[in-house]
Amino acid sequence: MCGIVGYTGPHQAAPILLEGLKKLEYRGYDSAGVAVNESGGIHMEKSAGMIRNLCKKTADGAVFHGCAGIGHTRWATHGAPTDENAHPHVSNDGRFAVIHNGIIENYLPLREELQARGFVFKSETDTEVIVNLLELYYDGDFKQAVLKTISRLEGSYAIGAICADQPDRVFAARQFSPLILGLGIGENFLASDVTALVAYTKNVIYLDDGELAELSPEHVTVYDCTGHPIQKKISRVTWDVEAAAKGGFEHFMLKEIIEQPRALKATIDPRIKNGRVVLDDFHLTDEDLKGLQKIYITACGSAFYAGQVGKYVLEQLTRVPVETDIASELRYRNPIIDEHTLMIVISQSGETADTIAALKEAKQRGARTLAICNVVGSTIARLADTVLYTWAGPEIAVATTKGYTTQVAILDLLAVYLARRLGRIDEAEEARLVGEIQKIPQQIQRAIDLNPGLEDIARAYHDNSDMFFIGRNLDYAVCLESSLKLKEISYIHSEACAAGELKHGPIALIEPGRLVIAIACQERLFEKTCSNIKEVKARGAEVLGVAMEGNAAILAEADKAIYVPRCDPLFSPVSAIVPMQLFAYYVAKENGCDIDKPKNLAKSVTVE
Ligand code: F6R
Q1: Which residues are catalytic?
Q2: Which end of the chain has fewer beta carbons closer than 10 Å to its terminal beta carbon, N or C?
Q3: Ligand 1 atom at minimum distance from 303 CA
Q4: pTM to 2 decimals?
């Protein structure tokens, strides 16, 4: 979604802003712009389409001379992705420029009010009301104008603003949309995402809702919503620049698939000591656990599908009922959640608007909350009672891969941990399960090595217009994620179907040549899935079987096979998804798709 950068310091601002915007490209956008304070006025350029259009228009920023400015990548919500609707927006008197992420819910009455006062609007955006409110409330004090402006706004925002009268100042304000201040030496930065900052500084301040900040080259001051200065903690970012670079791979997605063994090791190993799962950050007491009646899992997209795997594993090991719900549904359906509920929220970015809202809803109803999150200091990580971080490193490709597998691994660890604390498994069983989880990183590597023919398989099927994924139990959970992965990056329609459900409807769509991918790693259900394979074969489908290594029987049923290393079936989803990620990747590559930045998608969905 939209990205924000800001800079004030001794250097020309625009090249730094453009570099920062390029780091945020992965979030998804459709126009971009920068505005810089110079010669007592505001110099602005913006452009629909890619950042390279903006770079071309501005000679990579060289046409700007000022040393303080703001930049933005926009993902259209109010109005089409045009030059006019791109940010920054400038006030009628040309004194202020503003960039904004989020949605101003009361922008229509504000716009009418400003129009009645004679303000003219040049775009269809909600953002333009912010910049004209600044003009309305300005009496020579930039900070007071920002305070008065934000007191009028309803909805969500992360704002960056500059004023021609104060050439080295950048103001920032946050409400329900992430914003981070980067602290340099003699220069300071602003961004919606740490990836835009790590090349310049590792010292950051995470703004909280209702706060604003004033940046000059030498100082950063954070204020509460009444304008009083407040002390904020300075955090250190652990990601480095290389971790957010392609490292020789053609796409970030391929790099992130291949680095999964390392990401899983970083997530699993520190949580295992002497054959036991140790979750130092888990704060529920034995008393709390005794009263635990239900586990709830909520998330969006792939994170929700990780939660679907978690449901099977948690129920199997803890025998506590687990309910799963999509975050955007949970928040509007009066869910049965109380102090006896453990609410698990899963989010790679930690900034997904619906997941944040569901987490707040659960807290309000008294649930204990646990977040599984990849981004340190993100909103979800800070809101939940307990955070278990997935140490996957920065995930740049829009389609998640290592984010998903590390989430599943945390759920596996949590299931074993809770099962032991609830007395459902003994020490020997815990040690056995832990041994199995410790093998996951090498199993993922084997899942990659076992299937060198995946690119050829993808080439054989890339022009199928519809594909189906079928499986049972945990294999069905893997189907859900496999199908999402394929459709989002290759734009091929696909459906995941519990294999037993086929004959209740979806089988009507099976016709000669249709590709069905049958995931059959749960061997106790192998025969059942094989009978579903027979049903689709009888109707002319081509079948690609996914089975455990050494299972020759799959080739008696399917046309082609993909193998997954043999492991405890409870933990097979983490390695079974890997060839499916690669299959989706190679199909998308064959179809010439923009793999890292699929159309219409954004990495971090910060609006409802
Ligand atoms: C799919 C994908 C999305 C995200 C979803 C939630 O590949 O990446 O479906 O999983 O938007 O995002 P997070 O995990 O950041 O809350």
Answers
A1: 2, 603
A2: C
A3: 10
A4: 0.82
